[in-house]
Amino acid sequence: MWIVPGGGVEPDEESSVTAEREVLEEAGVVGQLGRCLGVFENREHMHRTEVFVLTVTKELDEWEDSRSIGRKRQWFSVDEALTQLALHKPIQRHYLQKLKHSKTPPDNAEADTTTTASSTDET
């Protein structure tokens, strides 16, 4: 199964810093964080998720989760990612659809650039 990197905000940490830290830990990538695509909340569980665009500038050969749990990184086209997310994370799929149908390209990307989604293997 493939997942989109994410995780909990540490005390006194901004959500944008959390996003950058989590993609480094879970997917072994560094990049420039762009706009927030949206926020969804689960009030019953007091849980809030912010979804950001990230332009990847560096991919590490090894990273924390690759060493500790054997996690792998794989890139998907937007359409492939939408299919994977429909099976496992339909709420996250909504935000990728929002990006795909946006009239503005992701931050720091050319208008004709194909956007790809990063996911990591849980196994």
TrEMBL record:
One of its GO terms (cellular component) is cytoplasm. It holds the Pfam family NUDIX. GO terms for biological process: adenosine 5'-(hexahydrogen pentaphosphate) catabolic process; diadenosine hexaphosphate catabolic process; diadenosine pentaphosphate catabolic process; diphosphoinositol polyphosphate metabolic process. Keywords: Cytoplasm, Hydrolase, Magnesium, Metal-binding. It is found in: Cytoplasm. Its main location: cytoplasm. The keyword Cytoplasm applies. InterPro entries: DDP-like_NUDIX, NUDIX_hydrolase-like_dom_sf, NUDIX_hydrolase_CS, NUDIX_hydrolase_dom. Its cofactor is Mg(2+). SUPFAM superfamilies: Nudix (SSF55811). Transmembrane segments: none annotated. Residues 97-123 are annotated as: Disordered. It catalyses: diphospho-myo-inositol polyphosphate + H2O = myo-inositol polyphosphate + phosphate. Its EC number is 3.6.1.52. Residues 111-123 have a biased composition (Low complexity). Residues 1-100 form the Nudix hydrolase domain. It is an enzyme of class 3 (hydrolase). One of its GO terms (molecular function) is bis(5'-adenosyl)-hexaphosphatase activity. Belongs to the Nudix hydrolase family. DIPP subfamily. This is diphosphoinositol-polyphosphate diphosphatase.
